[in-house]
Design the sequence.
């Protein structure tokens, strides 16, 4: 397999708007790294389910975590799953209802879910926290054995899948461009606000540097 592109298979071959498909690994990784939220879909007893969770990427592997008591996590060990990640970047307003759309970046990945053994799990959980807020882990109390036991970590190779991206303005019918109807894009972005302190913080605690730096980033 090329290290530059993901596998293109029947289920990753886009039929609807194939020009928006992208199998470039750097494009896929960029979409994954731009958010921690993903949705994992799977089959249990012949019925479909989808679960939102947090993910992080290390190299050509995607990881996600959840409660060890979770029914879905117990059911997906070494089973096939689909992971989707989507960014909603804007509402595209066209001159007809039919051509309204959205700008977005999305990734869909397929593969088998591999449960991480306990010997490797603690380091990956540290990596997860550091992926969320760099510098956070070293400020925390140590994780207990019970907390580690209560958490499951899964991995899946970023091997089979594709990205799909839409950008730009509406694509209207040629004859509609002469109509006196405003068209364009309403951009949407996720905004990070100033930190809000827990009212139960000890008196005199200041916002730590790693939180200030993150909120300014």
Sequence:
């Amino acid at each position: 397999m090329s290290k530059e592109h993901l596998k293109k298979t029947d289920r990753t071959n886009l039929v609807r708007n194939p020009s928006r498909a992208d199998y470039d690994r750097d494009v896929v990784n960029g979409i994954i790294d731009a958010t921690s939220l993903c949705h994992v879909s799977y089959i249990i007893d012949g019925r479909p389910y989808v679960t939102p969770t947090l993910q992080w990427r290390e190299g050509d592997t995607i990881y996600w975590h959840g409660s060890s008591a979770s029914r879905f996590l117990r059911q997906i060990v070494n089973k096939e799953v689909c992971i989707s990640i989507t960014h909603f970047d804007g509402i595209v307003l066209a001159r007809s209802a039919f051509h309204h759309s959205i700008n977005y970046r999305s990734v869909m990945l397929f593969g088998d879910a591999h449960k991480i053994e306990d010997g490797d799990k603690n380091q990956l959980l540290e990596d997860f926290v550091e992926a969320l807020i760099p510098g956070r882990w070293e400020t925390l109390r140590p994780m207990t054995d019970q907390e580690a036991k209560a958490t499951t970590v899964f991995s899946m190779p970023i091997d089979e899948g594709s990205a799909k991206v839409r950008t730009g303005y509406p694509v209207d019918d040629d004859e509609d461009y002469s109509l006196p109807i405003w068209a364009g894009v309403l951009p949407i972005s996720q905004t990070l606000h100033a930190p809000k302190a827990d009212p139960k913080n000890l008196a005199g605690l200041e916002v730590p540097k790693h939180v200030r730096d993150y909120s300014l980033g």
